[in-house]
Write the structure tokens for this entry.
Amino acid sequence: MEKSKIMQHEKFGEKDFQTIIGNLLRYGVWISLSVAFLGGIVYLIHNGSHIEDYSVFKENDRNIFEVITAVYNGAIQGNGSYLIFVGIILLFLTPVLRVLLSLFSFILEKDYLYVGITLIVIAIIITSISFGFSH
Amino acid sequence: MTVLTFTLIMILGAFLAGFIGSLSGLGGGIIIIPLLTIILGVDIHYAIGAALVSVIATSSGSAAAYVREGITNMRLGIFLEIATTIGAVCGALLSTIAPTSFIAVLFGLTLIFSAVNSLRKKEEHIVLESSPLAKKLKLEGTYPTHDGQIVSYGTKNVIGGFSMMGIAGMMSGLLGIGSGAFKVIAMDNIMRIPFKVSTTTSNFMMGVTAMASSVIYIQKGYIEPGICMPVVIGVLFGAMAGAKVLVKTNPKKLRVFFACLIFVLAVNMIYNGLNGKI
């Protein structure tokens, strides 16, 4: 009862987007964690008795597209650690999808100031990709 | 130590970190890093990567509920994300060139700052009249209380809050943490946003902020699947268990205990950082 009262105070479209974004965040987390968990089981079956040393950092300098290609190929072959990586990438994509959804929401509301602000955020994220390997 | 033993220890440790992070209000990421580096001897770069992954998982998970209830101020969040993402990219780039000892010491100081901040008495001052810039950006909003009432609030000092958010984003990119303590200062103390809105909006922003630095982390090899998997699972379930306990107990006494614990961890980080042991 209380909830329906609240809904009347807000724009219907905005409430809809709140529900969609809320669901996206929730399912995004659970789907990506399930994939990472499955990958973890495969990884432990194959590597459980190995000995790994994480005390020394091995710096990489691969660009994101190389990483994604490697992850895709590895995951298809059923490599556990790459399957975990798929889960992690899905987890990273959840907030990105959220930003795209808010962009659509602002376009529908014809709030062009916020369309612009959301586009700036997207531009910064895209720039961060190119920064990663310019170093 | 075999991978299996290591994984089991990490799940347990991450569960504890998520649990303590949730009860103390500091977040799991900030506790998992000293745990990995001091106790398990993991390199701080891997620890930062794993912490960031767990930050995205816990923040998106808890943001989901608040967004649907209409408490989160999405406009405010997206506007401030400009500052946090720029900060995060700068922080992540800085972390790739900064010496490890510098990162360890800075992390220790941030831990102390966050612990002290979590103990500070908080007073709420809702402003009703927004500043002209806040009005132009449509940052004022409403939120529903437990009994279904709608509370309106305004905001002020947009530029001050925006700048503080840039620092919060930089700390997040540099250290792999959610930097909740800095965000709270920006929104509560500077912009005068009500607590309920500021904590949920800060949660909402964390995913995107972390995403901006995570691309750089992936490319530099900070994200090690074998560490991330047990950490994310442990922290998430720990945070969920913490949230359940939080409803039943009074966290005030616990907070003092956790603040002391975190202080010890922080001093340890700083000491090890200065001695080049991290």
Remarks:
- Residues 68 and 86 of chain A are 9 Å apart (CA to CA).
- Chain A touches chain B through 73 residues (CB under 8 Å).
- Confidence is low (pLDDT under 50) at residues 1-10 of chain A.
